[in-house]
Amino acid sequence: MELYAERITFSKKPISIPPEYRPSYTIGLIVLILKICCQSSKSSLLKLHLINWALKSDENRNSLKKFVLSNYTESSKTWGIEPSLNRALNYSVHEGICSISDGKYQLEEKGEVFYQKIIEDPEYLNEEIDFLKFLGKRKITDNRIDSIYKKWKNQNA
Questions:
Q1: CA 9 to chain centre
Q2: What pTM was computed for the model?
Q3: What percent of the chain has pLDDT over 70?
Q4: CB 97 within 8 A of CB 114
Q5: Backbone torsions φ then ψ of 100, nearest 5 degrees
Q6: How do residues 55-92 score in pLDDT, each as one tens digit?
Q7: What is the pLDDT of residues 105-114, one digit of tens each?
Q8: Nearest of 45, 63, 52 to residue 28 by alpha carbon
Q9: Spatial contact of 139 and 68, defined as CB atoms under 8 Å apart
Q10: Looking at the chain, which terminus has fewer C-beta neighbours within 10 angstroms, N or C?
């Protein structure tokens, strides 16, 4: 028995992608984090991952809030590293939204314009913006994040 296919075709089917995996959403978060939570709109990769992780759920937000409000005396659960954030960072750098200097991501002029467009819409990312404003620029420093990371790394070694 012989089977022949004259033509094979493939067609794209629309699939729903959750917002947190859409590059435009994640790039928007990166811009907001750099502008609202980082001195000189500049941050380490670990800090971006920590805050991005916190924005993923109410449970994560509450965990980070509790940690910050306890003046870093209570342990907080370990945060996750999101490949989608890394991809969005690569895209942001390629598009000139941010740059990398001395191992830190810094918001560029194009990112500043993007930030202004985000905050112009009072209904867009309100919950995220409120949380980022709570954190502010001084509540979570890169040095504190590095020391927390080292502590967690040693505990899990």
A1: 38
A2: 0.83
A3: 85
A4: yes
A5: -115, 130
A6: 999 999 998 888 888 766 555 567 778 888 999 999 99
A7: 999 999 999 9
A8: 52
A9: yes
A10: N
Instruction: Give the pLDDT of residue 11.
Output: 66
The reported pLDDT for the residue numbered 79 is 79
Cα separation of 85 and 122, whole Å? 24
User: Over 84-115, what HEC string results?
Assistant: HHHHHHHHHHHCCCEEEECCEEEECHHHHHHH
- Beta bridge partners of residue 84, listed in sequence order: none
Contact 106, 41 (CB under 8 A): yes
Rounded distance between C-alpha atoms, residue 114 and residue 132, angstroms: 17
Please state whether 91 falls in left (phi above 0), alpha (psi between -120 and 50) or beta: alpha
Residue 38 gets which letter from DSSP?
Answer: S
Between CA 109 and CA 4 the distance in angstroms is 58
Tokens (6 digits) for 86: 């890394």
3-state secondary structure of 71: coil
Cα–Cα nearest to 50, from 145, 134, 130? 145
Strands 42-43 and 98-101: unpaired
Question: Identity (one letter) of the amino acid at 1?
Answer: M
pLDDT tens by residue, 23-54: 889 999 999 999 999 999 999 999 999 999 99
